[in-house]
């Protein structure tokens, strides 16, 4: 994959790329966990009867230094091809002309080997960006449509970091501030809601949201602190849904750049679940469990610390970045994020749950 997905990882991750699944057992013993999964991703359409032209851009599993994809197969009733967006993500593109069936499916199946991601989080090992690095990473320092960097965010970032310039120390300060000031909506689903777009402004104003709200606010504060930051969209492979005919939904997480270390992962949204401060009840029990990869049994400070610099292997990566320019270009222009798919009918966006649904399922390979 291109350099946009290079990252600081453990030796085990590098070995996974070099020797494939044959290394799996030895790596698990000595260098961190590696998971192997069989997956199915489905888009099911209900097409308006007068539709003349349908275009689909559908996420594909990406290959990077944590993830190897094998035996990718596509089942579709129309011709398709791979394209690549402005962030370097591989995308499935399909176009259908009238007469279009009233309903049809596009299905991808694949196997994925995913390594646990670990990074050095030693402040002494890094330093602030120099002028060349700031220029090189201006893309990851810039705002997006829903990651707003204004004077309000800059002032808050200065307050949180206290002017700290070391990227590890400053990033931990931002991580802790988000944990202490924002609540994941699933803790109290009757009173807290997520935004439909994943918005830094919404998250700051309401002090709640889903993973994309959390990480959009985190990215805004981080970039305002001169720390390059990117959002990665994927899915958690939830243990309780292993082998079940239930959609895994989507999830996102963060990587920030620390010179001499590389891209450092974190997931402050999942960490917020383990930070506690709420009661489990019939309204939130299932939602809380399914916001985590392996269930929830109560507050866990060790996991809160783990998710700063580490990610477990129970994930699949779909895309990196926001404000994506797809190829060929949609009529509506750039797409603000691609956790699942983007669809146009006769040049107009077709919303999820209006004209299509996604279902992603998996089975762990022992």
Q: What does this 3D model show about the protein?
A:
This protein has 366 residues and is α+β, with helices and mostly antiparallel strands. The chain folds into 2 domains: 3-116 and 338-364, Sandwich (Immunoglobulin-like), CATH 2.60.40.2250; 121-312, Roll (C8orf32 fold), CATH 3.10.620. Helix content is 24%, strand content 29%. The chain contains 10 helices and 17 strands. The chain has helices spanning 11-19, 24-30, 131-136, 151-161, 167-181, 200-206, 211-224, 268-274, 285-289, 301-306, and strands spanning 34-46, 53-59, 67-75, 80-84, 90-97, 103-115, 117-118, 183-184, 208-209, 229-236, 251-258, 262-266, 310-311, 315-320, 341-345, 348-349, 356-364. The strands form 5 sheets. Strands 4-5-2-15-16 form a 5-stranded antiparallel beta sheet, with no helix packed on it. A hairpin with a 3-residue loop joins strand 11 and strand 12 (262-266). Helix 5 (167-181) crosses helix 8 (268-274). The two termini are 27 Å apart. 45% of the residues are buried. The model is unreliable at 1-30 (pLDDT under 50).
């Amino acid at each position: 994959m291109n350099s946009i997905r290079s990252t600081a990882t453990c030796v085990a991750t590098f070995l996974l790329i070099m020797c494939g699944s044959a290394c799996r057992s030895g790596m698990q013993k000595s260098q961190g966990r590696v998971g192997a999964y069989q997956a199915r991703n489905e888009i099911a359409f209900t097409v308006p009867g007068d539709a003349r032209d349908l275009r689909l851009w559908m996420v594909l599993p990406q290959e990077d230094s944590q993830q190897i994809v094998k035996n990718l197969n596509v089942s579709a009733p129309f011709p398709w091809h791979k394209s690549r967006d402005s962030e370097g993500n591989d995308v499935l593109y399909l176009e259908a002309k009238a007469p279009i069936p009233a309903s049809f499916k596009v299905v991808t199946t694949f196997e994925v080997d995913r390594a646990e991601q670990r990074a050095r989080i030693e402040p002494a090992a890094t330093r602030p960006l120099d002028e060349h690095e700031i220029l090189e990473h201006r893309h990851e320092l810039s705002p997006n449509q829903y990651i707003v960097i204004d004077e309000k965010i800059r002032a808050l970032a200065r307050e949180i970091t206290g002017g700290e310039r070391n990227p590890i120390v400053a990033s931990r300060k931002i991580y802790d501030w988000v944990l202490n000031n924002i609540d994941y909506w699933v803790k109290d689903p009757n009173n807290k809601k997520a935004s439909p777009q994943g918005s830094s402004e919404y998250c700051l104003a309401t002090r709640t949201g889903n993973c994309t709200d959390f990480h959009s606010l985190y990215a805004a504060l981080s970039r305002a602190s001169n720390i390059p930051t990117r959002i990665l969209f994927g899915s958690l492979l939830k243990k309780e849904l292993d082998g079940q005919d239930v959609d895994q939904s989507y999830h996102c997480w963060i990587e920030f750049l620390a010179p001499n270390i590389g891209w450092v992962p974190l997931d402050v949204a999942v960490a917020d679940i383990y930070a506690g401060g709420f009661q489990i009840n019939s309204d939130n029990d299932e939602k809380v469990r399914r916001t985590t990869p392996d269930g929830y049994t109560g507050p866990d400070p060790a996991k809160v610390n783990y998710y700063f610099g580490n990610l477990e292997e129970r994930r699949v990566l779909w895309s990196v970045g926001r404000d994506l320019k797809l190829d060929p270009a949609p009529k509506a222009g750039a797409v603000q994020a691609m956790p699942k798919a983007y669809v146009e009918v006769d040049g107009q966006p077709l919303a999820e749950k209006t004209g299509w649904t996604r279902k992603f399922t998996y089975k762990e390979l022992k």
